[in-house]
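Annotated sample (chain length 261).
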Amino acid sequence: MVKVGIIGGSGFDDPRLIDNIKRIKKHTPYGATSDRIIVGSYQEKELVILARHGEGHRIAPSHVNFQANIWAMKDLGVTHILATTAVGSLREEIKPGHLVFPDQFIDRTTKRKSTFFEGHEVCHIAMADPFCHKLRDKLSRAAQKLGLEYHRQGTIVTIEGPRFSTRAESLMFRQWGADVINMSTVPEVVLAREAGICYATIAMSTDYDCWHESECSVTWEIIAQVMHKNVENVKTLLFEVIPHIGYTECECREAIKQAMV
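Output written by the structure step:
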């Protein structure tokens, strides 16, 4: 049975689109989730929706309880996660407003718990290809059908935050081969793999990062303006993709079986 989780921002609990909406609190062994969880359905697909940073974006990236959020998704039976995130562009061709479906990440976080196995069990999860290629393919096909500007692959670098990068750091990330930058994908994607959940990111370019000297320095105001303009595109994409997600065999669910010491 397919159950689709949406992690990201608010605005995806629109009662005009989703049936049987309920808001629930979910206890987890890792503490509280970022916010109450929204459950409902869309075209016979069950949905589980969670605002990563809580209502009103009140939780800073380093303080998001990623373990609780993913554990709750797993416990509620989620099989696939579509995560939305705002990103800064590190490439001229990825313009503000474009969507990117990353296939790789670079982890520059330092404070976050990135595994469920913290006791006497050790898990070495395989992450060579961290994002579900089947979900990424579905997102690409849907974006093409809708006429959206998108990039079917890319490397996302996740920094600790909450500050933005220096220009030197931004230039370094470009040299490393990163295409976009954010503060939220890691460890979310890693924990999803440990939980055996297919996971893909819809990264929305909101600005050129500060390497792009012809642009103004990035500010939260700039990011919020572009996000507001493009959230409807992301919602349209999600509701185009969701009916086409089926339960098929996938390496995302098998990785944990070979990961335990």
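Annotation: The chain has a mean pLDDT of 92.
Annotation: The longest strand covers residues 198-208.
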